[in-house]
Amino acid sequence: MVLREAPSIEPRGRSRTPDADGDTSGARRAEARIFAGSTPARLTALAVALALVVLAAGAITMREVGGRQDTLHSLLADAEPLAYSAQRLYSALSVADAAAATAFLARGLEPTDVRANYSNAIAIASGEIVFASSGLAEGDATSRELLATVSEGLSVYTGLVETARANNRSGNPVGTSYLGSASAQMQTRILPAAQALHERQQERIAQIQRSYSSAPWLAISVPAAALLLLVAAQVFLAVRTRRRFTPALVVTTVATAVLLVWLMGAGLLSAVAAARAHAQGAGPLSELTAARISAQQARADETLGLVRRDGEDAYDADFDRLTADIGRLLAEYGEDGTRTVAIEEVDRASAAFSGWLDAHHRIREQLSTGQFQPAVDIATGPGPADSSATFDQLDSALGDAIEAARQTGRDSIGSASNALTALSGGAIVLTSVGVAGIVVGIWPRLREYR
């Protein structure tokens, strides 16, 4: 009989020795390395990478579009109205100064319409000061200081004008001195501050438009990179699986290409509209506003020269300088000029401007022969060829041209925003289609390796 050795029995709960456990861990690591280099692992990594880059393309597109629309909304709702308010303030102050000087040419009680023009201009200026004070940014200390200068100076100005008016009605010659002091306050303190405020707001709009005009390179580069990666992935799959194409990944590629083309097309249309807003809106508005204010200041020089009657040539020299600037600008914007904004309104302004210069020439002719009262009659008379009527026509036409330029700018900004309206929603849809296409396209290839 042959005796056999009984097999050894390990204690319950211990099936392997520590060395065996170490061998198992090493085996697992080896298996992991083998799997990491396998085709299924590469397909999984490829699917994750494709999904991430497609999601990134959609997210960056939505962020860029949202940021640009917020910029346009801020421009349309905040920056542009504030700049327009500063323009109206600047213009109203000039109107008030011109009207106050014109009123003085009538000894005693000034004409009702002239007084109404002055009162209306002061009311507009006061309202725009309130509006601007509520719209300025908290950190814009310079603009707030300028607005405070205008507000304080306007209180002093109106007080001087009322004192001058009271003396003028009483026939006191000292009224002319008060009027001169009021006009000096306006010309040397109030109007420069109002002009600086207007220029700051215009520069704010220009900065926004310049930043907007830059291309969204990040938003373009990420979808472009996603598109290239998708093409490379399909080439890889064609080599590995010996298939020409995967329909679902083709859908993803098309969706990404549509997103990229849509982004570039909508961005281009929006940028063109924003550039048009500056070229045909903000730029002309600023120049036409300067022309209108120059006209109002020239009108004040015309009337102050008559009021003072001191033979000072400074008013005539300033009138000639201002009207020369107006003439050059109207020539640029007229029917035969290089600008194409508010041509109809500018042509009306040009005709009125010519009539006003003719009336002013007649005033100078009367003064050259010592005929003061006929010169005053031309300056303030109701006739259609008199200085007052022709200047009113010029001011009205320039005001209409300013409104036309402003509306053109606002319409163009609206068009720039509308070009981007559907892109955010489209990016969500196209990104969802793209991710789904990746899953549907890669999953069958993974199942083949089970």
TrEMBL record:
Keywords: Membrane, Transmembrane, Transmembrane helix. The chain crosses the membrane at residues 43-62, 217-239, 245-269, 420-443. The keyword Membrane applies. It comes from the Bacteria. Residues 1-27 are annotated as: Disordered. This is Chemotaxis methyl-accepting receptor HlyB-like 4HB MCP domain-containing protein. It comes from Rhodococcus rhodnii. The lineage of its organism: Bacteria, Bacillati, Actinomycetota, Actinomycetes, Mycobacteriales.
